[in-house]
Amino acid sequence: MLKKIGSFLLVSMLFTILVACSDSGEERDESTNRTSDSTTEEVTVSEDEIVGEDMVVAVVNGEKLTGEKYNTVYTQTKTLLSEQGQDVDDQAFIKERALNALVSQEVLSQDAEENGINITDKEIDDYIAEAKAQFDSEELFEQELEKLNYTIESFREQVAMQLEQKAYVKESFGDIEVSDEEIESYYNELKKQSDELPKLEEVRDSIEAQLANKQLQDKLNQRIKKLKDDAEIEMNIS
Asked: SS3 of 25, please?
């Protein structure tokens, strides 16, 4: 059941990028990954992994980010990393990724507001209705939210932020294009690695999507870095 709502809300492209982006820019060693045929176990978060809801974990341009938001993002991050096959026993690693994602969300949200991007109540209501429709009852839906450290109110706030950020990405990076030359070059590189690769026509759409996503990730990472460089950020946990 956890994966139902996880797939719907948490494992979005944008949140995946935010979690993957680290200040150091370093990738984690592959030895920390599980094998690809491992079964992902249900993620749990212990009491020593969360902080007080009222604790100020970071301040971004004067905006206080509290433990309530951090705990939710921590759970999201741990769930996402587990589904990607990462070792989620390393709490320090998850904390670093979660705190970084939380601050990245905030700088993007502040920039979206400055650029006049607003999400209507109807858009939020429609999104939540679609999420609820995955469950057999309201009670099961609320139980799932509780597993992810959400209240109804905090879930609504998260949905609003995510819709805002998706609109921001569309407005800021909606001009991404992938040329035929780029697709063919990528395909030829893949072909060098495997003699059993399908014909280009069969995988063209998939390659185009991958390259477009890579462009978006690079541009978004650059934007986040600039926003953070220009922001006043105070971290209160480490």
From this structure: coil
Residue type present at position 4: K
In the chain, helix, strand, coil percent, each to 5? 65, 5, 30
Alpha carbon of residue 14 to chain centroid: 5
Q: What is the largest CA-CA distance in the chain?
A: 57
pLDDT tens sequence for the chain (238 residues): 444 454 455 445 677 777 776 544 444 444 334 433 444 467 888 999 999 999 999 999 999 999 999 998 998 899 888 888 888 999 999 999 999 999 999 999 999 999 999 999 999 999 899 889 889 999 999 988 888 778 888 889 888 988 898 899 889 988 899 999 999 999 999 999 988 899 999 999 999 999 998 998 899 999 999 999 999 999 998 7
Q: What is the pTM of this model?
A: 0.78
Q: In Å, what is the CA distance from 175 to each residue of 10, 178, 186, 215?
A: 25, 10, 21, 11
Buried b (16+ CB within 10 A) or exposed e, 170-201: eebbeeeebeeebbeebbeeeeeeeeeeeeee
- Specify whether the CB–CB gap between 53 and 66 falls below 8 A: yes
Q: Name the phi and psi angles at 12, rounded to 5.
A: -85, 160
